[in-house]
Amino acid sequence: MNVQNQNRVEHLDSLLEWLDPDRERAAEKYLGIRQSLIKIFTWKGSADAESLADETLARVMSRISELRGTYEGDPSLYVYAVARNVLKEQRRAQVKSVEIADSVSENQTTDIDNERTNDCMERCFASLSPSSRALILDYYSRDRTDKLSNRKELADKLHIAPQQLRVQVFRIRNKLSTCMEACLKQEDKS
């Protein structure tokens, strides 16, 4: 076993000891926390929930020697706090990649590229459910000066909280973005 793998095993052993002195209960807690993390990341709209769960646990394991001596309380709560930070970082990275893609496409598109992009956008938009199309159109078509009040009205109309409205719109945008990437790649091959 190489040094890196040996360190991982030692970190995992330390994490299990931190979760519970009984090895079997510790393993059950570990698996339960990992499953909870996957559910949380999935619910938050992450495309790769398992990788984010593993990243979260790896970060906790990397600090386990420090945590065992200083952290008091339920270890799972600490893990969930780390997961929240991992999710924030992932979202910031997504926003940056979208901003970069937008700036590149704005600066380097030709008429042919615009036509291809519009064709893909129409196809992707058509692939959404009617309710998703209506929601995204209503969400973005309102006057920007009264954006907050208009979006609150929309949430009230749908009988959901404004936060739920933002989550739904975020998920629809992710679907559109994924569809657009796939469509444009397919167009490039043709």
Detailed description of the structure:
With 190 residues, the chain is mainly alpha-helical. The chain folds into two domains: 3-91, Rna Polymerase Sigma Factor, Chain: A (Orthogonal Bundle), CATH 1.10.1740; 110-189, Orthogonal Bundle (Arc Repressor Mutant, subunit A). The protein has nine helices and no strands. The protein is elongated and about 60 Å long. The mean pLDDT is 81.
Described by strand count, sense and barrel closure, the largest sheet is: none
Question: How much of the polypeptide forms β-strand, as a percent range?
Answer: under 5%
Unreliable spans are none
SS class: mainly alpha
CATH fold-level name of the largest domain: Rna Polymerase Sigma Factor, Chain: A
For the record, the CATH class of the largest domain is Mainly Alpha
Fold blueprint:
Blueprint: H1 3-19, H2 23-43, H3 49-62, H4 64-70, H5 75-108, H6 111-127, H7 130-141, H8 147-158, H9 162-189
